[in-house]
Amino acid sequence: MHTAHLKIAAGLLATIGCSLAAGPAPVVLGSAKTFAILANTRVFNTPTSAITGDVGVASGNISSLSNFGLVRDASQQFSTSAQVNGRVMVGTDDAPTPQLLAGAAVDMQAAFTDAMGRPGADFVGLQNGRIVGGNLVPGIYEWTTAVTIAGDITLTGSSTDTWIFQISGSFNQETNMRITLAGGALPQNVIWAIEGIVTIGANTLLQGNILATGNVEVGANAVHNGCIYALTTVELNMATISCPGGRRGASPADDDIHTGMCRNFNSNSVCDRVCDCRVRKFECFDSRR
Ligand SMILES: *[C@@H]1O[C@H](CO)[C@@H](O)[C@H](O)[C@H]1NC(C)=O
User: What mean pLDDT do residues 198-209 have?
Assistant: First the structure.
């Protein structure tokens, strides 16, 4: 009874303080958050790509990454690449990297399961899975089919509004198609959960984090504001991928900068989010979860 009252009180506080956030509670990425690209098996690349955030292959060795021009760090814990603003990590790097990657892989799987399993979709089978355009308001969108982005779409909402797209099939964004944000909406608040293969066409613009069970192929010169979490492999072709929560830089000093960003983000952020970077470095906890 007391617990119930506390929950109600907390709910009221959240409601009173932040009544304007629309859409589902955010999907927590956990320790996967610093990765612009996290794959379980391989990451292929056709240069030159520009990636902001860490790149990791959880069950791979250095041969699991191609054409990154990797330079092994003296610590033996990661490598660097001129194409990556962050660290490149594989399962055979020195400790603590294998544990870190294993934890991130678990968190990636948990985030996928959470996103895919959220009940109460606001929209089911929108445009029969062939999206030819329009404005998509915050909420949960569910398709039991493949989805193709065949026109330009806009996601309009505030900086705290959220979108979860649940796709039980492949996802295909056709060449030149653009997904844009409006009204202050942020890419980290957009989740594409895909049970299948992902094909992002050439010269596209995409917003949001991808969580996919199948291979993710990013076409030539695509620009993606978001991170890619693939339970299998990722293939890049001269891609620009900017992960909002991704690590910048590769030196230990950059860890502190990242912590600062985390604190900063939350001090400037809305009242319904609480960050405690001291508990688990690099991670922001959302008090609504
Ligand atoms: C990486 O792993 C593969 C598959 O286990 C193996 O064939 C290959 O020799 C390894 N490469 C390196 C550099 O360790």
Answer: 98
